[in-house]
């Protein structure tokens, strides 16, 4: 499945401020909300709609409404910073949680929590701001597939080429929506130029 990279001047603006190391957690949270809102629109462009008969104040008509509820699955903890815009603008959203944490030396993600609503028949949007090695995203998508998800989309803010390659190989049918595609990983598997540790910056840790 193709990688879709956000192409919007507001997205570029927000990303630059997110990357800036002088940006403090309060502004960082606002910027995360803004970029996740733009990405949420991209990741749902092809959602199914169905007919609905209504009456405007002028006459009856047939409109269209979203056909099925959405499920958002943030990868804890940093993914939580991307959930709010989905809750604010989509009418029928359930939230599931997958807790993963990368080991500081091996960069391999360890699972510590999982709580998912029913996923069958719903679009499942897995969100995590950083797609670095791709290990966390691939593991989270294994988990939602095992729980019954069939229509899955992955959304991140910053992607590394290495993560895109790993995720596309593990789950070739899952579209990836990214705010930006960065250059590479460094020796410690952090994204370059990136924005540092998203979770630490979001939560001031
Ligand atoms: O693509 P990967 O190499 O797996 O790296 C990406 C993961 O690393 C970060 O989480 P981290 O493990 O730091 O946990 P946190 O969200 O609790 O900070 C990030 O939020 C992703 O989940
Ligand atoms: O650059 C990176 C890589 C993984 N996780 C982060 O928060 N940042
Ligand atoms: Mg972290």
From TrEMBL:
Quote the CDD domains the UniProt record gives. Answer: PRTases_typeI
Domain Phosphoribosyltransferase intervals: 5-205
List the GO terms this entry assigns under cellular component, sorted alphabetically: cytoplasm
Asked whether the keyword NADP is assigned, the reply is: no
| Example GO molecular function | GTP binding
Question: Which transformation does this protein catalyse, written as a reaction?
Answer: UMP + diphosphate = 5-phospho-alpha-D-ribose 1-diphosphate + uracil
- Family, per entry: Belongs to the UPRTase family.
NCBIfam families (alphabetical) = PRK00129.1 (NF001097), upp (TIGR01091)
UniProt xrefs under PANTHER family: ADENINE PHOSPHORIBOSYLTRANSFERASE, URACIL PHOSPHORIBOSYLTRANSFERASE, CHLOROPLASTIC
Write the protein's name: Uracil phosphoribosyltransferase
What species is this protein from? Lacunisphaera limnophila
In the record, what lineage is assigned to the organism producing the protein?
Bacteria, Pseudomonadati, Verrucomicrobiota, Opitutia, Opitutales
């Amino acid at each position: 499945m193709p990688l879709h990279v956000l192409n919007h001047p507001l997205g570029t603006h927000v990303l630059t401020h997110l990357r800036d190391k002088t940006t403090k957690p309060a502004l960082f949270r606002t910027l995360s909300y803004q970029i996740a809102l733009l990405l949420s629109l991209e990741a749902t462009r092809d959602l199914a709609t169905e007919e609905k008969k209504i009456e405007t104040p002028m006459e009856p008509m047939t409109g269209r409404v979203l056909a099925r509820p959405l499920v958002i699955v943030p990868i804890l903890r940093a993914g939580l910073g991307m959930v709010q815009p989905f809750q604010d603008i989509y009418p029928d959203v359930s939230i599931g949680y997958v807790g993963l944490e990368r080991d500081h030396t091996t960069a391999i993600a360890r699972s510590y929590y999982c709580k998912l609503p029913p996923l069958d028949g719903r679009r499942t949007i897995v969100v995590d701001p950083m797609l670095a090695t791709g290990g966390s995203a691939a593991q989270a998508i294994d988990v939602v597939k095992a729980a019954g998800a069939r229509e899955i989309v992955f959304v991140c803010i910053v992607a590394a080429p290495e993560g895109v390659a790993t995720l596309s190989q593990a789950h070739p049918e899952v579209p990836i929506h990214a705010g930006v595609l960065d250059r590479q990983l460094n020796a410690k598997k952090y994204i370059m130029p990136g924005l540092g540790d998203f979770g630490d910056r979001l939560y001031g840790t």
